[in-house]
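tokens incoming
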């Protein structure tokens, strides 16, 4: 019989014999095979992995991930970390390009983290990270677990340098930053850790401008912005910004911080914030004018606060309780201040989970 994966084939008497040809597709050079296979949509990658061990290893490899990124074939899916009314966590994934868009549960979360609070949540490459956290009777931990989306598997990873919970987590220059938050008695609250995937290790840093009370974080213009709690001196919201060139944290622009009062996301270098103080209203920071502008209001029939924001291309996904989702294309926000119209993804019928954080992963 013709064999695609180059592993085994059947002889006339029914026995299996080894095939010496190790090509991905018989008769084709591997680079041509990769050229063809890498163009298969991401939703069918699980089917490709069933063809043979060689195909499975390819789809799960860094080579596959890098090739699709280099040739702009990668597709972005959204991952959401949630908690239910019993404070048990769960993870869901959404393919935003699917004709029948719906959130799907990711199985197999490590049992020991299901009840943890204040965990960090981040994506780097084709892996999702759950970091640190604590519990009612458990101090902050340095444990890290990763989910490999290609292999659909969870493993324990290199631990944080510092035990943390309720901290900021962002990616900058292909490194994960775990910043501030609460820790164990021996932890320094004015510190941050960086993870380098090349060495699979964490490195600890200190800066007195970092505070434990972290409200939100975002990466903009190649810098990390951290929105902190209310200042005990001025009673105003304040923020700090990380300068990679100097490796230090500075106080952020007060005008920008003044309107940062909700979940934030950056699209094409522009900062958007969802104000949930009275209904749900999307705001935009205009750097040139140094002022906040209202983009539009979202229908209360579609949004279910508290919401989190995540962006894919030019679209902002507003994800609320039960994973009820509203999609806004920022190219269609010409009517400033009016009710915005966008597509929506209905909530999960059997869920009223609260969304803790949303991240994107491109494969």
């Amino acid at each position: 019989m013709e064999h695609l994966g180059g592993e085994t084939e059947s002889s006339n008497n029914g026995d299996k014999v080894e095939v010496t040809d190790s090509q991905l597709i018989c008769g084709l050079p591997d680079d041509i095979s990769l050229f063809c296979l890498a163009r298969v949509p991401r939703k069918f990658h699980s089917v490709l992995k069933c063809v043979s061990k060689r195909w499975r290893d390819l789809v799960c490899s860094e080579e596959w991930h890098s090739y699709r990124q280099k040739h702009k074939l990668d597709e972005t899916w959204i991952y959401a970390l949630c908690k239910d009314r019993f404070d048990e966590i769960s993870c869901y994934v959404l393919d935003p390009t699917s004709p029948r868009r719906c959130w799907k549960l990711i199985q197999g979360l490590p049992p020991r983290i299901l009840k943890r609070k204040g965990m960090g949540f981040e994506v780097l490459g084709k892996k999702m990270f759950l970091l640190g956290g604590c519990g009612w009777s458990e101090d902050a931990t340095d444990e890290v677990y990763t989910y490999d989306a290609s292999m659909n598997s969870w493993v324990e990873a290199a631990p944080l340098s510092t035990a943390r919970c309720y901290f900021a987590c962002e990616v900058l220059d292909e490194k994960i930053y775990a910043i501030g938050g609460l820790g164990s008695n021996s932890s320094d609250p004015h510190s941050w850790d960086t993870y380098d995937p090349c060495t699979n290790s964490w490195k600890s840093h200190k800066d007195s401008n970092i505070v434990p009370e972290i409200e939100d974080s975002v990466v903009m213009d190649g810098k990390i912005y951290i929105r902190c709690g209310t200042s005990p001196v001025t009673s105003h919201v304040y923020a700090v910004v990380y300068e990679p060139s100097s490796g230090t944290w500075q106080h952020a622009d007060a005008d920008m911080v003044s309107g940062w009062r909700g979940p934030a996301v950056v699209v094409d270098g522009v900062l958007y914030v969802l104000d949930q103080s009275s209904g749900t209203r999307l705001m935009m920071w205009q750097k040139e004018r140094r002022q906040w502008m209202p983009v539009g209001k979202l229908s209360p029939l579609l949004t279910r606060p508290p919401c989190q924001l995540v962006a894919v291309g030019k679209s902002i996904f507003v994800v609320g309780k039960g994973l009820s989702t509203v999609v806004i294309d920022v190219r269609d926000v010409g009517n400033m201040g009016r009710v915005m119209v966008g597509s929506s993804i209905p909530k999960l019928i059997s869920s009223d989970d609260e969304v803790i954080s949303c991240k994107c992963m491109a494969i």
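note: The helical segments are 30-37, 45-48, 53-59, 62-70, 254-258.
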